[in-house]
Amino acid sequence: MDLLVEKIKEIRRNKGEEVTDVPRDFFKDERKRVIIRSINNAIYSAAHAYNNLNECVSHLLLALYYLLDAFAQQGIYPNSIFEILIFDYLQVIWPDGKIHYNDVLDIVKPSDYRSVARDFRLEIESMEKGKHKPSERSLNSFIENMKRIYDASRFKRNETPNCLSERNFLDLAYSVSFILEEYCTAPILHEEAETLIQCLYKILSIFVMMGVDPSEYIEELINKMEEESIKKKK
């Protein structure tokens, strides 16, 4: 995903906009509200088209693009932070290959579970010091990890592309909006980055639940937008 963020940065450069390779916070920055509005509009457009697979996926791809653009604008490379989040979910899978739940459906963590909160903060600090280089790890590899997590959970995902029920889709859309509200009020950079990563996981979760791998489609969308930005630059 880092390479996709790099391409989006280039799109902005072609438009004559300044971009940064060092993370910066967007607290009290009007661009944060634009990001939130764009993602929410795309997510709820997808929700309204929940029973039309092609239209729904098109709107979801726009939501994913706007989110990756948020990383680009803030100078945050998502791969290494997303790896921490994926590790956090993978470590709650028990030796029997399942995630365990208590009577109220809260996740029961294994005894060797450790918090990753400090890891998030340290990774952002490393980026701020300019010690981070973009990773070539693909979006598809993360999707495969997420499939493993869902297969271990109490939730069922589609094996082949298919629509979700209206209720399931709206539940996921509401959770994206809730995370974006936390992003809106996050006062410091590492909290902004954490909420963006949580939002990324949730949007990718919708694709996983639908049985759609967005990797190829989002790359095509970004390549198309890059080509258009080059033409306008000329």
Could you explain the architecture of this structure?
It is a single chain. With 234 residues, the chain is an all-alpha fold. The protein has one domain (2-233). Helix content is 66%, strand content 2%. A hairpin with a 5-residue loop joins strand 1 (100-101) and strand 2. It is globular, with a radius of gyration of 18 Å.
Gyration radius, rounded: 18 Å
Low-confidence stretches: none
Strand order of the largest sheet: 1-2
Number of domains: 1
List how many beta strands DSSP finds: 2
Instruction: Give average pLDDT, whole number.
Output: 91
Distance separating the two termini: 28 Å
Shape: globular
The main β sheet shows up as:
2 strands, antiparallel
Number of helices: 9
Helix content: 55-70%
* SSE order, one letter for each helix or strand: HHHHEEHHHHH
Secondary structural class: mainly alpha
Proportion of residues in β-strands: under 5%
For the structure shown, list the relevant keywords:
2 strands; mainly alpha
List the helices and strands and how they pair.
Elements: H1 2-14, H2 30-48, H3 53-74, H4 78-90, E1 100-101, E2 107-108, H5 117-128, H6 139-152, H7 166-185, H8 189-210, H9 215-233
Antiparallel strand pairs: 1-2
Helix pairs in contact: 1-3, 1-9, 2-3, 2-7, 3-8, 3-9, 4-6, 4-8, 5-8, 6-8, 7-8
Task: Briefly characterize the structure.
This protein is mainly alpha-helical and 234 residues long. Helices cover 66% and strands 2% of the residues.
